[in-house]
């Protein structure tokens, strides 16, 4: 063969292969377009489970359940499978000739595989035509039939590999990640499923499957065995961070089961069995619709289940709604789904701009004239004067404490609350004599406020209060843990994805609390139940200015500085009991209460409202609105530890001290008590990024950058850091069954400690709470807190 002939032959074959590839690729793109709702749903699930911090954490704590029979995992798996089944099954109705023939009665008795058979029959193409036409038709039918199955399988695989990805993100060592990273595994899975859309490759794969036993009993036995393995993996869970791998394996088995059912059920399951499974899916859909309706009417009902399951319930409803609109639009040949989405977006924007739309406006309370604020300088002078005699008489330096508490959801709030509780019990004069101010962001600010409200009540009555739990045989040592054992996340998610979303768009429902106000009510109820109050209502429901009167012996209380971020300007806004506008160091801050009372004279806000403005996590909580002032979001946007306020307060404090009390300069010790979280995430700062990534990454990382700067300014001397701490736990059911009497009597075979995951969101498992309490008792933390307590107690001995 000459070189010219070889070249022509090579080009001819290359062009032929290219035509085949582009024909197949066009089929794939066309089917993706037909299944656009499913594609978008899978993309949304990928974003939520792989790149959204709070849902990343929720995956990790599915295994942190005290009960032997963990219903959280089966519920999540059931909802995940139902959504995958809907993605597979609902695509059948996209063929107009099929859904025109289906009646409501037939819908409940026809399986996906049977409808796909109808699709084949509905294509009026003879199989006796030329080989090329038949081949193209078969390929087209194969892609159409296989694509929904591939998408359903990808959904479950994304969930499974998200668990492995979460383990990698949190630095949990495991053999699987050493073999292959989660992102690589997902990419390979995606490529494999793409290959299954090629009829030739799929045919060869079927030959491989043909080697499996073709008996129905084998399929039933294999399916039952795999389900049993999933259940056993849940029962073997010991709540350790390593148990996340059991969850990953169980989710992989679930994906394998779905794949087997989708591709083999038509041959290995009887028609009655398929119809039975199909009908079960309709029962589950009815349950999901009912749950979504209940969650929308009463979001607090959702607190009974894991937030991840609440998300799955909402995603199923969104999918069915979007698919129904798309199907209706296809029937009448109009882009109904696109029209509805654009309309909702534009109408939602106009709703937000309406002057009478007050859904996200914060709650107001009456402010008494006696609650007018003094200036910051005056408060400092009074605070020092009231303690001057003690400072003068002391033989050691008098500790004055400025607290800065880092954000980080419920784990940060509980940690701050616990540290304060420990110090208050170890040194009774902590709050009354030595604590000057508390500042924080997000969860840390909430923990400060939880402690402050009760300590202030005892301070006003000149009494003491024991923050340790008084429950006999209780699981936790501190009242703070009892408060934070509640699920404060599910209701926010249920409202966000339900009635708040509808109200934000249309603004036509009767007035009801938004998810921010709902959270405030949950905090108030949880705090009242565990910490109590002299009044019938929670301390957190009181006016934020009502805490700042002197106690019975004429002592001024510490300052609780609650921070937030003004959305319209990006400025730090401080909800302060004192007026700081004249102080040079604070001129960059917005005085929230001054701005607020200029628009709403004789009004104020509840402490719980101030707490929520401090901790409005993006999207999960709405930006709180004050008409005429603006909207306010999480304080962590600006500074996630509140150190900016603490540092400026110290500058002003020192100035007042030098000017008014110079004789005390050498008699006091300024202490920066920093209550922070351990940042275990290792970031490769040298890793390059694209020019598209760089701007957004810079904006996101500014928050953590500011926080690290403030941590450096505050110093490490009195830094009390929360870290994952090992604890001992009871044996699970399976471990008890396999433990022999000899092993029980052998002291060398005691349970090993476990190290639970500490999630970022507003939902802590009991095992995580116990781990946080255990951190308080470690030598590293206890040594610092005991030393600080001894400094305060030593001053007491000189009184």
UniProtKB/TrEMBL annotation:
The keyword Membrane applies. Keywords: Membrane, Transmembrane, Transmembrane helix. The chain crosses the membrane at residues 12-29, 36-53, 73-91, 150-172, 184-205, 217-237, 243-264, 276-295, 307-325, 332-348. This is PNPLA domain-containing protein.
């Amino acid at each position: 063969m000459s070189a010219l002939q070889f070249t022509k032959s090579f080009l001819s074959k290359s062009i032929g292969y290219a035509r085949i590839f582009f024909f197949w690729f066009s089929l794939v793109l066309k089917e993706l377009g037909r299944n656009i709702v499913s594609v978008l749903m899978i993309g949304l699930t990928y974003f939520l489970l792989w790149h959204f911090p709070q849902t990343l954490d929720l995956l990790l704590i599915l295994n942190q359940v005290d009960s032997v029979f963990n219903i959280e995992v089966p519920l999540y798996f059931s909802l995940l499978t139902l959504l995958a089944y809907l993605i597979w099954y609902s695509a059948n109705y996209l063929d107009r000739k099929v859904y025109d023939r289906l009646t409501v009665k037939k819908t409940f008795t026809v399986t996906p595989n049977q409808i796909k058979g109808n699709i084949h029959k509905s294509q009026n193409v003879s199989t006796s035509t030329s080989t090329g036409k038949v081949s193209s038709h078969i390929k087209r039918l194969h892609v159409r039939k296989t694509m929904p199955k591939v998408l359903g399988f990808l959904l479950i695989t994304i969930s499974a590999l998200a668990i492995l990805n979460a383990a990698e993100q949190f630095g949990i060592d495991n053999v699987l990640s050493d073999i292959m990273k989660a992102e690589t595994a997902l990419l390979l899975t995606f490529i494999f499923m793409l290959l299954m859309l090629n009829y030739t490759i799929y045919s060869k794969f079927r030959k491989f499957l043909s080697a499996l036993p073709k008996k129905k009993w084998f399929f039933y036995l294999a399916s039952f065995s795999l389900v049993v393995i999933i259940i056993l993996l849940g029962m073997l869970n010991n709540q350790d961070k390593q148990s996340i791998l059991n969850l990953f394996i169980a989710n992989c088995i679930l994906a394998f089961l779905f794949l087997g059912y989708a591709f083999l059920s038509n041959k290995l399951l009887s028609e009655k069995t398929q119809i039975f499974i199909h009908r079960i899916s309709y029962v589950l859909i009815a349950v999901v619709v009912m749950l979504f309706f209940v969650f929308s009417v009463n979001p607090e009902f959702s607190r009974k289940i894991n937030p991840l399951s609440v998300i799955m319930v909402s995603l199923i409803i969104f999918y069915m709604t979007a698919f129904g609109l798309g199907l209706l639009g296809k029937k009448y040949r109009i882009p109904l789904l696109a029209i509805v989405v654009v309309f909702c977006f534009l109408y939602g924007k106009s709703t937000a701009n309406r002057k009478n739309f007050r859904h996200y406006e914060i709650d107001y309370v009456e402010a008494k004239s006696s609650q007018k604020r003094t200036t910051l300088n005056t408060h400092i002078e009074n605070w020092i004067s009231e303690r001057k005699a003690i400072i003068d008489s002391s033989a050691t330096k008098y500790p004055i404490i400025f607290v800065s508490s880092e954000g980080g959801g419920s784990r940060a709030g509980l940690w701050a609350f616990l540290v304060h509780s420990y110090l208050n019990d170890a040194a009774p004069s902590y709050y009354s004599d030595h604590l000057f101010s508390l500042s924080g962001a997000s969860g840390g600010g909430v923990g400060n406020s939880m402690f402050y409200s009760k300590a202030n009540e005892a301070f006003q009555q000149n009494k003491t209060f024991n923050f340790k739990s008084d429950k006999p045989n209780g699981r936790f040592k501190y009242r703070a843990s009892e408060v934070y054992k509640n699920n404060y996340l599910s209701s926010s998610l249920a409202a966000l994805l339900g009635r708040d979303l509808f109200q934000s768009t249309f603004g036509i429902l009767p007035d009801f609390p938004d998810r921010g106000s709902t959270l405030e009510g949950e905090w108030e109820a949880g705090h009242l139940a565990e910490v109590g109050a002299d009044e019938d209502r929670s301390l957190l429901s009181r006016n934020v200015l009502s805490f700042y009167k002197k106690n019975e012996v004429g002592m001024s209380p510490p300052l609780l500085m609650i921070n937030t971020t003004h959305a319209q300007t990006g400025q730090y806004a401080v909800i302060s009991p004192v007026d700081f506008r004249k102080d040079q160091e604070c001129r960059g801050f917005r005085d929230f209460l001054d701005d607020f009372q200029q628009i709403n004279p004789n009004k104020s806000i509840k402490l719980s409202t101030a707490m929520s403005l401090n901790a409005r996590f993006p999207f999960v909580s709405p930006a709180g609105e004050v008409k005429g002032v603006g909207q306010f979001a999480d304080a962590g946007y600006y500074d996630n530890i509140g150190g900016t306020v603490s540092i400026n307060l110290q500058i002003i404090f020192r100035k007042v001290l030098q000017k008014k009390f110079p004789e005390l300069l050498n008699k006091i010790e300024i202490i920066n008590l920093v209550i922070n979280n351990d940042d275990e995430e290792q970031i490769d700062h040298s890793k390059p990024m694209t020019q598209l990534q760089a701007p957004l990454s810079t904006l996101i990382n500014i928050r953590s950058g500011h926080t690290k700067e403030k941590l450096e300014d505050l110093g490490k001397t009195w830094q009390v850091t929360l870290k994952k701490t090992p604890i001992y736990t009871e044996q699970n059911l399976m471990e008890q069954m396999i433990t022999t009497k000899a092993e029980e009597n052998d002291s060398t075979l005691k349970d090993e400690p476990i190290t639970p995951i500490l999630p970022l969101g507003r939902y802590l498992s009991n095992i995580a709470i116990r781990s946080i309490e255990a951190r308080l008792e470690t030598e590293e933390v206890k040594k610092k807190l005991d030393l600080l307590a001894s400094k305060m107690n030593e001053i007491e001995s000189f009184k």
